[in-house]
């Protein structure tokens, strides 16, 4: 895992080095800069496989030059195929396998590799550049393209100088907690969508983006539950095993949840040595899962470390938040994620995680809400619209946020989308065009819950979860690998009958039944708190002065398309403990810090 940079802009000496230094935390072990023809390549290396300098980047093979961020988990298999075809290798790295694999197969290499990656390969003979991003969007890929000028980078900070703010992106951020691909916070800077590759011909100054992978229309397997459980268990074992390949120390994150405990259990079972596990706890018992995690660690026999997160820790990490999350990012769980990686780095450089399990196996609480309120959506809209009148809601006691949404929402799809966004809630003018990039979920399945899961995989997983994990881990030069983000696991989960995953409110049923083989059910069958800090309480108390000072009129009036008066009402209701508006207040707080950091 590293940082990549590439440009054809003729910067003065030292500028490219300055750009790389601004994100040096991504790769502290080696900085490489080379120029080929009119292209300058930059690379920041975090050494994981083949620690020898021979695997430094940029790497060249014949007429090809590569910069690569990520890991190819099945590189040994691909390497054997290439050796059988007559190729020789000078390193033990997956980087060389990727480069020679592209030499032989071209873009069809993408269907052969399993990993998390973002890379660019330049062909000096044809003067063409080939770039690609992994299927699920685990690794970031930003690019600037304007009038034949190109910049590519693993983070957006090096690309922001002299750019204008993208006001549409600010509105999208206020709708969600993040800026989804292909948008970014700056005009003319974009994210390459997951499962896509980009080809640039510098001779004709043409750029073309194509898709090589996506979710497909679901075809449910005719399979028994026991057979499905066995197949999934074997698949997860392989996904864990190939992610344990490392030439540096490796551990695993362990919370009180099903996903991380299953990953850690499998890792402990297949690893030849005792693994280290790590968790974050909170003083407030409503948020603390550390005691449960410690129980798990004893059962699966790991060397466990617990760190308690306090409000003072959060304040210390806020400058780090704006340093490494260089686009506005409103998920407050980024803060404990930063702390977790800070502690983890003291022991290991690579850590497994359970990210992705909730998305594929119906694990979030709002799936329950979808099922509970599904019958409301099936009532004709004209009747629901009548029932949504405030006086009737009060009479019938229908004050739930989800119920109100269900009554007011025109279609099932709109109701699903409202899980992930409050469109126009804090805006003067409602803007929804950005959702056009994520409409595929409507055609992939006719199953209500699977539709919601598919949208979450394509929208939330890439733009929230993956961003949070990548930036928090890279901030401390830690590589995080999640077996549940293996595309084979995601594809397999979608073919399982829904009642294998969700049955009568029992979420992640099949994962729970696999976990029983490692941890007794009475131990892991405890309420999950979720990985979030008690920000809402802290902002009313310890952090109140900081929030009052930061969210002032001067800042609020600078935010484009923003309903200042509505926000002030929410702010007052939250601080007086009448209502909970943590999410909205926190995202504005983060946006303010971002404005200060980048002087937009």
UniProtKB/TrEMBL annotation:
GO terms for molecular function: asparagine synthase (glutamine-hydrolyzing) activity. Residues 2-203 form the Glutamine amidotransferase type-2 domain. CDD domains: Asn_synthase_B_C, AsnB. Pathway: Amino-acid biosynthesis; L-asparagine biosynthesis; L-asparagine from L-aspartate (L-Gln route): step 1/1. InterPro entries: Asn_synth_AEB, Asn_synthase, ASN_synthetase/amidase, AsnB_N, GATase_2_dom, Ntn_hydrolases_N, Rossmann-like_a/b/a_fold. Keywords: ATP-binding, Glutamine amidotransferase, Ligase, Nucleotide-binding. It catalyses: L-aspartate + L-glutamine + ATP + H2O = L-asparagine + L-glutamate + AMP + diphosphate + H(+). Its EC number is 6.3.5.4. It holds the Pfam family GATase_7. NCBIfam families: asn_synth_AEB. Belongs to the asparagine synthetase family. This is asparagine synthase (glutamine-hydrolyzing).
């Amino acid at each position: 895992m590293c940082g990549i940079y590439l440009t054809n802009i003729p910067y003065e000496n030292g500028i490219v080095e300055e750009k790389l230094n601004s994100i040096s935390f991504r790769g502290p072990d080696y900085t490489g800069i080379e120029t080929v023809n009119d292209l300058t390549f930059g690379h920041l290396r975090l050494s994981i496989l083949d620690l020898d300098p021979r695997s430094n980047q940029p790497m060249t093979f014949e007429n090809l030059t590569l910069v690569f961020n990520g890991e190819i988990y099945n590189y040994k298999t691909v390497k054997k195929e290439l050796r059988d075809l007559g190729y020789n290798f000078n390193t033990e790295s997956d980087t060389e396998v990727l480069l020679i694999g592209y030499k032989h197969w071209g873009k069809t290499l993408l269907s052969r590799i399993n990993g998390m990656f973002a890379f660019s390969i330049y062909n000096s003979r044809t003067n063409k550049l080939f770039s690609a991003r992994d299927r699920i969007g685990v690794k970031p890929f930003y690019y600037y393209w304007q009038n034949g000028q190109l910049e590519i980078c693993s983070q957006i900070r090096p690309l922001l100088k002299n750019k204008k703010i993208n006001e549409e992106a600010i509105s999208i951020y206020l709708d969600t907690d993040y800026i989804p691909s292909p948008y970014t916070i700056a005009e003319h800077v974009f994210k390459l969508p997951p499962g896509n590759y980009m080809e640039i011909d510098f001779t004709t100054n043409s750029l073309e983006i194509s898709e090589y992978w996506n979710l497909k229309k679901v075809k449910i397997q005719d399979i028994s539950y026991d057979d499905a459980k066995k197949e999934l268990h074997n698949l997860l074992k392989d996904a864990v095993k190939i992610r344990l390949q490392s030439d540096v120390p490796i551990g695993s994150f362990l919370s009180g949840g099903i996903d991380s405990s299953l990953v850690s259990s499998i890792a402990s079972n297949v690893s030849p040595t005792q693994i280290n596990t790590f968790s974050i706890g909170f003083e407030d018992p409503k948020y603390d899962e550390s005691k449960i995690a410690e129980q798990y660690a004893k059962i699966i026999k790991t060397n466990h470390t617990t760190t308690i997160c306090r409000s003072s820790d959060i304040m210390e990490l806020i400058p780090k938040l704006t340093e490494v999350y260089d686009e506005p990012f409103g998920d407050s769980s980024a803060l404990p994620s930063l702390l977790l990686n800070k502690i983890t780095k003291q022991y290991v450089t690579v850590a497994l995680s359970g990210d992705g399990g909730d998305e594929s196996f119906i694990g979030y609480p709002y799936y329950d809400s979808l099922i509970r309120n599904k019958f409301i959506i099936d009532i004709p809209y004209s009747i629901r619209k009548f029932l949504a009148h405030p006086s009737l809601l009060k009479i019938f006691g229908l004050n739930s946020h989800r119920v109100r949404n269900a009554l007011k929402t025109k279609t099932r799809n709109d109701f699903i989308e409202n899980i992930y966004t409050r469109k126009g809630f804090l805006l003067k003018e409602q803007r929804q065009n950005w959702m056009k990039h994520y409409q595929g979920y409507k055609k992939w399945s006719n199953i209500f819950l699977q539709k919601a899961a598919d949208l979450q995989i394509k929208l939330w997983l890439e733009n929230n979860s993956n961003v949070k994990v990548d930036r928090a881990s890279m901030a401390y030069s830690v590589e995080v690998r999640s077996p549940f983000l293996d595309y084979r696991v995601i594809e397999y989960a979608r073919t399982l009958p829904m009642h294998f995953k969700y049955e009568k409110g029992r979420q992640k049923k099949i994962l729970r039944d696999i976990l029983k083989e490692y941890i007794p059910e009475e131990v892991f069958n405890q309420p999950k708190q979720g990985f979030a800090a008690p920000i809402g309480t802290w902002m009313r108390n310890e952090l109140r002065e900081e929030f009052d000072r930061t969210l002032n009129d001067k800042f609020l009036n600078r935010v484009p398309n923003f309903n200042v008066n509505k926000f002030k009402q929410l702010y007052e209701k939250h601080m007086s403990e009448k209502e909970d508006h943590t999410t909205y207040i926190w995202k504005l707080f983060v946006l303010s810090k971002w404005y200060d950091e980048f002087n937009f």
